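User: Hand in any protein.

Assistant:
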Amino acid sequence: MENEINLKSEYYILYYQFLELDKKSLLYGRNDELIIAFMLYYKALIENQKEKTNKIKDRILDKFLELEISPKQIKPYTKECKLKNNLKLHFKEFFEAIKLFNNFRKKIGKKNRENIAKKMLEYRLQYYNFFILDVEKIEYIEYKEKNITYFPLQVLNEFHNTMSHLCSIFITTRSNDNNINRAENHLKRAILDIYKVIIKDFFIIKQDVTKIRDDVAEIRNDVAEIRDLEYKTIGTDRIITIIEVINSKNNKHKDDIFKKYKEVCGKIINFYN
């Protein structure tokens, strides 16, 4: 599914202005709230939801004023830039994966979301292993949900990297083909990250279950097979072309890693139906 992306767009000009702020993210932290707003803005654009697009854009502009980001006169090197790409396909898969993830979050219930949050906090604290961690104290942390809808941090980062490359095409004279390829790769990584977060969260919920149900064991086996396939296909284009892998019988069979991860996530969600 090859399409043209027209980069003569107000969206990319606004995102480029956001990149000016992002240069300071190492000092002050990245503004995830704005990245989420830009993500929803892009979704509304490709779905041609004009009213929603204008509302989100206005919120972004208000946030710019709050952060004292002054609009800059941007002179693109090309008045209009049309390039062959697969971004439409990738963004479709990306937003479907986001929907799948938040469906999973709703179905597992608040208590499981709380357990996942505390376990992830434990993992995060262990990352800074220069002090003794009293894990038991995490259980006493009060858990409050601001919003069930959630976007994993690594997914926001990959979306941001995608848009950074697309802005680079529009604003600079750098290689267009390289930036398109890199944008697509960041988006593909974001899709895989979403599927993997669903799987990891599911097994956090199930890790204390003494007797593993057959359907859970089946999901575990499916994940092990996909991971094995993933390692065998490192360096290949996993979503555009169908991957050919040599199995134990030396017969070629065709697999799509993204499709397999999506199917496993579907089984996980069906587990809560």
User: Anything to note?
Assistant: The chain has one domain: 4-272. Residues 176-206 form the longest helix (31 residues).
